[in-house]
Amino acid sequence: MAELSKKLIEECRDILTAKKEEILNRVREGKEGLLHNEKNGDEADQTARILAESEFVAMQDRLRSQLFEIEMALSRIQDGTYGICEETEEVSDSERLRAIPWTRLSIEGAEIRESVAKKYART
User: Fold this and answer.
1) In this structure, is residue 21 part of a structural domain?
2) Which domain CATH number covers 48?
3) What is the CA radius of gyration of the chain?
């Protein structure tokens, strides 16, 4: 089995760390923006505030999910399993890791999971 170079792992660690910091900053900014919304106003203002809060919650959920994947990738770097596909147990392509450094699947592994999901979705 081929191994990932230390240079690639360091490059991906740097990308993951930068993305993590970006997400944490977006969460902080989003919270601050939400806290400055007026709690009073007419019905239209209240509706707009509720819609903004709903959008904020959905965005926070997506960011939380991505942050979890980033943390798991950093953990895999730490324990030496980074870049190993969870489905095929083969080393993922370096270009895929550069593009999506938190990925847990190689292209082949993602295709296998997708075909299995489609198979069971039909039944």
Assistant:
1) yes
2) 1.20.120.910
3) 20
Average pLDDT of the chain? 89
Q: Which residue has the tokens 């370096």?
A: 94
Query: What 3-state class would DSSP assign to 102?
Result: coil
Residue 1 lies in a domain: no
Give the CA dihedral 70, 76, 77, 78, nearest 10 degrees. 110
> pLDDT tens for residues 75-105?
999 999 999 999 999 999 999 999 999 999 9
Residue 95 lies in a domain: yes
Q: Which residues of the chain have pLDDT under 50?
A: 1
Amino acid at 5: S
Contact 97, 83 (CB under 8 A): yes
Q: pTM of the predicted model, to two decimals?
A: 0.79
Which structural domain range is residue 41 located in?
A: 6-122
User: Domain count of the chain?
Assistant: 1
CA distance 49 to 55: 10
